[in-house]
Design brief:
alpha/beta; TIM Barrel; three-stranded parallel β-sheet; binds 2-acetamido-2-deoxy-beta-D-glucopyranose; binds zinc ion; cell wall biogenesis/degradation; cell membrane; cell wall
Length: 448
């Protein structure tokens, strides 16, 4: 029976093809949408066994993870535009609140812009940029009367590189995460909800290794295209799957492609998600996209421009937030290659939580991250104290991720003021040429 399943699986894999939209790695982000329904050969069973796999093919072999079977009905379909599930009363109640804030404030009550795939040709917009629409002219400072905080685009410390990886978890990220561990280097990871759902054990490694997790939407599309409820659902379900699988509720996000305006910022704000953009783009995500001609040499050069800035005074008082990706073998290898020169040019390389002194970067107050001073002093590990009452955003399920968390146990929460965070950026929409759900139905019908 199981070899029959395997043969069918191989056929399924061969018969799929994925097409990407051009833009932030669109061609590379693969959809699985397996719904956790698969029984696989030598499956990893927990975070540690998944983290120990060295072979890329094996890392990227689908596996079944029991908690996801229960969670599946609570989530939208992966890699499809999210919407609020009709019986999700928590989500509906929160959205209703946010929706009132949006509709009662003319600064927020804006029409959607463009398509989810990033076609803005029909958008009527003028140079006044009252919506502070980032793709227009790079606006990251909403007008004061909106009450919205500025997006984060730099590190408030001199000669300090703000390190982040977008678009994970990539199934094959062990080599990168092993490297970061060897270097005692933490990063901020901007996780796509659908990738967390597809690769739960890989995603748990981020917490185990002490990285800082932010939201990068459910299906990684252009957020300004969506109506309020859909934009909310894209953020809500990505945040929720991170909570359900990793055990932490992020307080930061990065908009895919930087596509954000005041309406989307206000929706994120309603979820206590701080917006993080970037100051410099390595363009690593563009390599392999046939519609642009970005080469490895271009990416090397982009890294080196930032590195050069550390030696000529550009980052004397504030550091860059640099866009690079956990998207594929190339983007991860490129980072590993460039790291030594980054390291020698910059005084510090830190995750955004340390850069901003976000010692409590999640809703869960028992999880404590080092502030900047502690981090550069060598205390880079996360501390997970005994769980305290989960007031905001209680999880409906257990939190498998956090049990395997590393680190010593601290005395409990130490809530300091202003613990909210922000982040963002993205990749592409993708189209399947076959209907996975139908195939799995057929598969099950056949096997049963
Ligand atoms: C993850 O990286 C591998 C290369 O190691 C690539 O083949 C795959 O498409 C990536 N997966 C996703 C979901 O982007
Ligand atoms: C919503 O309905 C689906 C089936 O229609 C069910 O499986 C799921 O548990 C329900 N979700 C909630 C939050 O009640
Ligand atoms: C530009 O657009 C804003 C918002 O839609 C509008 O208030 C303003 O009048 C427009 N300005 C011009 C010059 O068209
Ligand atoms: C956002 O933070 C505020 C203040 O801590 C809290 O009252 C509120 O419930 C939070 N909202 C969400 C959606 O978690
Ligand atoms: C990429 O390079 C090829 C070959 O030099 C050229 O034909 C093509 O027009 C270029 N595409 C873009 C988008 O620049
Ligand atoms: C420093 O180097 C960068 C990258 O080459 C360059 O863009 C920038 O103008 C230089 N700044 C100064 C102050 O020389
Ligand atoms: C890239 O792929 C090669 C060959 O599969 C593998 O040995 C290497 O570890 C990968 N590098 C990264 C950073 O994933
Ligand atoms: C972080 O804390 C240090 C003191 O340790 C302080 O100098 C710095 O300004 C703080 N940064 C932020 C963004 O609050
Ligand atoms: C941080 O955690 C790593 C891995 O969990 C461990 O090897 C290391 O000793 C810890 N460092 C400190 C300073 O606690
Ligand atoms: C809580 O934080 C304050 C200010 O950083 C510090 O003085 C105090 O020692 C901390 N308390 C605990 C229990 O960590
Ligand atoms: Zn992205």
């Amino acid at each position: 029976m199981s070899s029959l399943v395997n043969v069918l699986l191989i056929l399924l894999h061969l018969s799929t093809s994925v097409r990407g939209h051009h833009g932030c790695g669109g061609g590379e982000i693969m959809r699985r949408n397996l719904g956790g329904k698969l029984i696989e050969r030598t499956s990893p069973t927990d975070e540690a066994s998944a983290a120990a796999i060295q072979d890329i093919t094996q890392e990227c072999t689908p596996y079944s993870y029991a908690p996801l079977l229960q969670l599946a009905p609570l989530y939208p379909t992966t890699w499809e535009t999210a919407s609020i599930l009709p019986n999700d009363t928590d989500a509906l109640a929160l959205f209703q609140q946010i929706s009132q804030t949006i509709s009662s404030n003319p600064s927020f009550n804006l029409a959607p812009k463009g398509t989810p795939e990033g076609d803005f040709s029909a958008v009527q917009y003028n140079g006044t940029d009252v919506d502070c629409w980032w793709p227009w002219q790079g606006c990251t400072q909403p007008a004061p009367q909106t009450g919205l905080p500025d997006d984060i685009t730099s590190v408030p410390e001199g000669e300090t590189w703000g390190l982040g990886f977008d678009d994970g978890p990539n199934c094959s990220h062990n080599a990168l995460y092993d490297f970061l561990l060897e270097q005692n280097q933490k990063a901020t990871v901007f996780y796509i909800g659908s990738n967390v759902y597809d690769w739960p054990l890989q995603s748990m490694r981020a917490i185990k290794d002490g990285h800082h997790v932010c939201v990068h939407t459910w299906s990684h599309q252009y957020m300004t295209a969506f109506t309020n409820d859909v934009a909310f659902a894209e953020l809500y379900y990505a945040r929720q799957i991170i909570k359900d699988i990793l055990g932490v509720t992020p307080l930061c996000w990065r908009p895919p492609y930087g596509n954000v305006d005041n309406r989307i910022r206000a929706i994120a704000e309603g979820l206590n998600l701080t917006t993080i953009i970037w100051s410099d783009d390595t363009n690593d995500w563009k390599v392999g996209d046939p519609t642009v001609n970005v080469t490895e040499a271009d990416v090397n050069a982009a890294y080196q421009i930032v590195v050069k800035g550390a030696t000529n005074g550009t980052y004397k008082s504030t550091g860059p937030v640099v866009l690079n990706h956990e998207l594929n073998n190339f983007t991860m290898s490129e980072f590993i290659k460039e790291y030594p020169s980054m390291k020698s040019a910059f005084t510090h390389i830190v995750p955004m939580a340390a850069a901003m002194n976000w010692t409590h970067p999640y809703v869960e107050q028992n999880i404590v991250y080092p502030d900047f001073a502690a981090y550069i002093g060598g205390q880079t590990n996360v501390t997970i104290g005994p769980s305290i009452t989960s007031s905001a955003s209680a999880s409906k399920t257990s939190t498998p991720g956090i049990q395997s968390g590393s680190a010593s146990v601290s005395g409990g929460s130490n809530s300091t003021a202003g613990e909210k965070n922000k982040e963002g950026q993205g990749s592409g929409a993708i189209r399947f040429t076959i209907n996975w759900n139908l195939l799995y139905l057929l598969l099950f019908a056949f096997v049963l």
